[in-house]
# Entry
Amino acid sequence: MITRIREVRRARGMTLDDVARRCEPPTTPQTIGRLETGTRTVSVGWLNRIAGALGVEAQDLVEGAAGAELKVAAILGPAGATAPKKRAIVVPPRVEDGQLAVLVAAGIGDYRAGDELWCDTLQPGDYGRALNRDILVPRPAGRFLFGRLINRDEDKLQILPLEVGGRQQVVANPPWLAVAARLVRAL
# Structure
């Protein structure tokens, strides 16, 4: 079986060590390298483990699969747009369990009307990972609060709204929060 593990790994900007550490259970960079080059046989189990580490579907790692990908036509840098020296691809992200989206209807803070925010939900024990990041917090009666998490006490979150002159809000014991992880903006 011909795989595209190396191609997808490079498109994700990850090293062999990054992929090895993100595998469940973790493995060695040498093993990932052998699987990439074909010196070690790739089983379905290995495909699933590596796909999980790369954040893609296993079918995206198989040559000739009908997985989603975008061919890179140019690389934009200080010297302008240039053709890539090697064939390159971008693999769209996989939607994971617990992800949700926020649509921006009117410009606020750094966000523009039409933006999509892809958010990862966090449980109370993981709220520390969202400090100084934009979050969505559920409120009673189906309402929400969106802003920057500026502090976290034992049972309270302190959130600074994005609007200019907004006052800090305190939310006690939210059951979950969603941290903005990816901005999708149409040009």
